[in-house]
Amino acid sequence: MRAPASKKGAGGKKKKAPKAPAAAAAAAAAAAGGSGAAGMEMDNGPAEGAPAVWRPGIDPVAEGEELDYDPTAYDCLHRFALEWPCLSFDLLRDGLGAPRAAFPHTVFMVAGTQAAQARANHIAVLKLAALGQGRHGKRDKGAGVDGGSSSSGDESDGEGGSSGGMDASDDEDDREPPPRMHHRLISQSSGVNRLRSMPQRPGVIASWHDNRQVRITDATALLEELAAEEELPAARPQKVTLNPLASHTHAMEGFALGWSPVTAGRLATGDCKRHLHVWEPQEGGGWAVSGVYNGHEESVEDVAWSPTEATVLASCGVDRSVRIWDTRERARSMLAVAAHDSDVNVISWSALVTYMLASGGDDGSMRIWDLRAFKDGGHVSHFAFHRGAVTSVEWSPYESSMLASSGADHSLAVWDLALERDPEEEAALAPEGNAVAQEELPAQLLFVHAGQTDIKELHWHAQIPGLIGSTAADGFNLFRPSNL
């Protein structure tokens, strides 16, 4: 894929960008050391020759052919994995300040596994430290980056093994220490379908399990341990058992799960038997779970709370609808539209433009809704880019016109709704290594990230502008496109 298409101009305003995506990672490659089963790596350097844009799901990859990318398209790109794949994760708010941009970064997150045996599952509480740039991003002249060989490191005690870890590879800059994964593991007796951290208390985690149960667990003490841990321990920490603060068993397993950003502790959960519930925190502790909210005719797939109104909630489902609820009324939804021509898998409510909602469907399309005209059933934008079901969509917490989506086509796309195509700028940027933009690509498509298999979920970091995390069948990526 080509180098970045557009950068911010003076005063933070964006220039118009070409239509083609900005960059893509290399095709899935083995991690340093060979197996790639666990570890963290910094991707290899670019191949020689003129850049060419590769379009996921359109352009074939010949047998034995491997995609490559321009590392200047990323400010950073890190890979890591746990012992088992994770369908869901969350990037946690921390006390390190915001917004922050200087490398190296420290990131806290939680993830839930889908292990081969039920009792092998866990919720991983992670601190990823010393996340540098490696060879990614443009460097100032005289910065001393050696374009030749660089140091490499072997997996050290406490980093790899059964819990996964991070590897230093030959792509790492000599001047940077290797990244480190600090972790604590909370034993679980079932696979985790989805989990979310409470915005007001990041250590409180809600998790949807494949045994029909939703649990709320307080991992605050584990996060505090990780925050204080400067060096990796000599021995791997043992799994711990934490009794949940609350739990509720649905009629069927599910995926829909979301905390209210307005009312601390208020939670919504939806299952595959079309049942939607709201959890209310109680004085003195515990939660009261409501009766069923009636409206969806089939599985409830996702929920999203209003960023400003405490009792307003959106949901979507296999019945192809997106619905808006007032939690004080369980008998019916306030508004409903037939949102897609297939199952609606995911939704996201913009925190910066609070009348904007995004939805993603099984047909690979993403639609943008203006809630001020929602009852009329008209979407304001429709993008049919992904060549597989849309698996995640999320608005940027820093740019009001920007959001990201991922799909079963193994790609993650960053969109900027404010962009228009500018052929003159495309021509001006061509000497920087940009490839020719394909006409069929949307003007709003700002960046495409590939190289992961079966991407399930993405999140923006709330305190590091432009940093995106994603989970897939072959592990996690953390990256920042250089044109955001």
Walk me through this protein's architecture.
Helices cover 3% and strands 34% of the residues. It is mainly β. Strands 1-28-27-26 form a 4-stranded antiparallel sheet, with no helix packed on it. It has a 4-stranded antiparallel sheet with strand order 2-3-4-5, with helices on one face. It has a 4-stranded antiparallel sheet with strand order 6-7-8-9, with no helix packed on it. The longest helix is centred in the middle third of the chain and has 9 residues, at 220-228. It is globular and about 60 Å long. Mean pLDDT is 83; it is low at 1-48 and 140-162.
Give the topology:
Blueprint: E1 74-80, E2 86-91, E3 105-113, E4 122-131, E5 180-187, E6 192-197, E7 204-209, E8 213-218, H1 220-228, E9 246-249, E10 254-259, E11 267-271, E12 276-281, E13 287-289, E14 300-305, E15 312-317, E16 321-326, E17 335-338, E18 344-349, E19 356-361, E20 366-370, E21 379-383, E22 390-395, E23 402-407, E24 412-416, H2 423-429, E25 445-449, E26 455-460, E27 468-472, E28 475-481
Antiparallel strand pairs: 1-28, 2-3, 3-4, 4-5, 6-7, 7-8, 8-9, 10-11, 11-12, 12-13, 14-15, 15-16, 16-17, 18-19, 19-20, 20-21, 22-23, 23-24, 24-25, 26-27, 27-28
WD repeats: 293-335, 337-372, 383-417
Main location: nucleus
Subcellular location: Nucleus
